[in-house]
Amino acid sequence: MKFFAEQRAEVMKHIETYMLKKMHDFLTPIEEIWQPADLLPDASKDTFFEEVKELQAGAKELSYDLMTVLIGDTITEEALPTYESWLALVEGVSHDEAGGWMRWMRTWTAEENRHGDLLNKYLYLSGRVNMREVEVSTQYLIADGFDLGTACDPYRSFIYTSFQETATTISHRRVASFAKQAGDKLLAKMCGVIASDEVRHAKAYKDFVKQIMQVDVNEVLVAFEDMMRKKIVMPAHFLREMGLKIGQTFAPFTDAAQRLGVYTSHDYVDILKMLTEEWNLTNLTELNEVGERARDYLLELPNRLSLVAERMKNPTLEYKFSWVTA
Description:
Helix content: 55-70%
Low-confidence stretches: none
Structural class: mainly alpha
CATH architecture: Orthogonal Bundle
Number of domains: 1
Distance between the termini: 53 Å
Number of helices: 11
């Protein structure tokens, strides 16, 4: 295990130069990026109450399922302290507080922090949400913590973030689309700008994996295979409401997302296909026996998962969440 950790740390150091060179492509300077205040009603203006009424009028048209998915997305965005502490434990990151990877982690966290801030304030102003119940679920998600199956391995961690950031992009884009259809142009814009951030973040982590593959391709494939055998677990997997155990709110939340078409089992398969293409698995050469087996498994997996997804019925049982009041 010591050799394993040292090898990973060496690789992280190797690709740190690339990361620092490309950082401004993946993360926008603070002086240039949008802030929640750019999109929300301004309480310092005489038009504040009119703007809030307009926001509430738009929110009123959102379906129950869409409101539920938006709240779940908000809670997972708000659980940012957990993700930051998780990344800080990755081999090659936590060993150098002043190093480039810690700089990346802090700057990425700063960008992500705006997402929960924006959506939380929208929900608060919408008039359709029991904010205390939402805040309790957020506190649970942070306090409970979660195991994403990556340990302290940067390979598994970057594979996970490549997948998760892509899934988040899909979810926010779909919410934006449904909000626009419902006439809530403000929410559509909010989710659209958040999705744009997530696109850049996903590209960054996918590129980091590409760089690692140039120097340790077989171990990357083994890590990728391991993550897919375990299944990629989204942070929402650990959602709960007051009085429930860890994860008990996840099933009705995903039912709502699947029923609405915000994020489905087919999207999971599509992301896997996209990553195998992005990382050019089909054309990789000079693999050892273990790497070949991992690659073969990964290339065959989308077809197997597609068959499972085709057999899944669209959930019809609706659940009453403590989060939604109207």
